[in-house]
Amino acid sequence: MSRILDGKRVRDAILESLKPRIAALDETQRPPGLAVVLVGENPASEIYVRSKVKACQDLGIASEKHLPTADISTEEMLFLIQSLNQRPDIDGILVQLPLPAHIDETQVLLSIDPSKDVDAFHPYSVAALVANSPGFRPCTPAGIMRLLDHYQIPVAGKRAVVVGRSDIVGKPMALLLLHANATVTICHSKTADLASECRKADIVVAAMGRAGFLTQDFFNPEAVIIDVGINRLRDRPAVDRMFSSDVSKLTEFDKKGTVLVGDVHPAAFQNCAAFTPVPGGVGPLTIAMLMSNTVWAAEQRYGGQS
Ligand code: NDP
């Protein structure tokens, strides 16, 4: 029987561990503060922002939303970020991506004070990650490391394959695994024989954005599979192909007209050592690590705990 790695349980443990740290800050200074900037109207981003603000409220982190309209210029965005940089009550600044095409995204991300870069996209944070020195770590890969640790899955000396090389997930994931002494291979769309690379791995992290792409023949039966992908299926034949034997998923699709699947074909989970389900695996960890980064930012401001 493959072991299920429950991301909600790990999220709850992370959030629980933050509570005394937030209480200590609240007592001696003030609660940590997070500013979230969401430009224009984007229903998916609005849902993410709402969940982030809700997580702050539940924990006692002060949060505020900035909702400029889609026609804001790059200069106006830079002005907004500068004003947040200067605010002593704001520890973390998060700009929800993607930004509208006319805004210079790189310039905006560069303008965030590195000490408030809770998403860890600033080159300063990237350099700290590469050098394995203290700094913010990107939330999703950092959450995956916490999950591996929580379930006591050994990483040192293991072969890890990361499928995907994005700046947000794939590359930082590979670096974190490397720093934890795994032997890491990064695969991408030009990798010659993806299946054979994956089959050699003790740990596979799939971060491709391709629904059910990695089928059972990509994994050895001892593999730990971490499925980062979030893909929405909207047509019934695709759902049938993916979940032919899972009545609950078919019923869910019939009710909602949509169903989520990761980058790993669900059948592959039946024959591996352990796996993260979609949903309920990696997804819940990302916001928990954003909260963790915000608390860490506040602690750094008031006394340099690490
Ligand atoms: P990107 O689109 O930025 O990157 C996808 C990567 O996958 C690229 O490096 C690409 O290779 C690689 N890839 C695509 N097709 C193939 C293929 N056929 N064979 C091998 N490699 C391939 O995606 P992200 O990294 O931003 O996100 C990946 C997935 O993770 C998405 O489904 C996203 O929704 C999800 N996600 C989930 C999060 C969570 O909290 N659970 C958080 C962030 C992302 P190449 O570079 O050659 O093009």
Keywords for this entry:
single chain; about 300 residues; alpha/beta; Rossmann fold; 2 domains; 6-stranded parallel sheet; 3-stranded parallel sheet; about 45% helix; about 15% strand; globular; binds NADPH dihydro-nicotinamide-adenine-dinucleotide phosphate
Structural account:
The strands form three sheets. A six-stranded parallel β-sheet has the order 1-11-8-7-5-6. A three-stranded parallel β-sheet has the order 3-2-4, sandwiched between helices. Strands 9-10 form a two-stranded antiparallel ribbon. Helix 1 packs parallel to helix 11, helix 3 runs parallel beside helix 4 and helix 6 crosses helix 11. The mean pLDDT is 96. With 306 residues, the chain is of the alpha/beta class. It has two domains: 86 residues, 3-Layer(aba) Sandwich (Rossmann fold), CATH 3.40.50; 144 residues, Rossmann fold (3-Layer(aba) Sandwich). It is 43% helix and 14% strand. Bound molecules: NADPH dihydro-nicotinamide-adenine-dinucleotide phosphate. The site of NADPH dihydro-nicotinamide-adenine-dinucleotide phosphate (NDP) has 25 residues, from helix 11.
The average pLDDT is: 96
Total strands: the figure is: 11
- Which CATH class of the largest domain is shown? Alpha Beta
Overall, the morphology is globular
- What is the radius of gyration computed over CA atoms, rounded to a whole number of angstroms? 20 Å
**Alpha carbon gap, first and last residue:** 39 Å
Spatial order of strands in the largest sheet: 1-11-8-7-5-6
Main sheet, how many strands, which sense, barrel? 6 strands, parallel
Question: Cofactors and ligands present?
Answer: NADPH dihydro-nicotinamide-adenine-dinucleotide phosphate
Question: How many separate domains?
Answer: 2
Poorly predicted spans: none
Fraction of helical residues: 40-55%
> What's the CATH topology label of the largest domain?
Rossmann fold
By CATH, the architecture of the largest domain is named 3-Layer(aba) Sandwich
Q: What is the string of SSEs from the N terminus onward? A: EHEHEHEHHHEHEHEEEHHEEH
Strand content: 5-15%
CATH superfamily of the largest domain: NAD(P)-binding Rossmann-like Domain
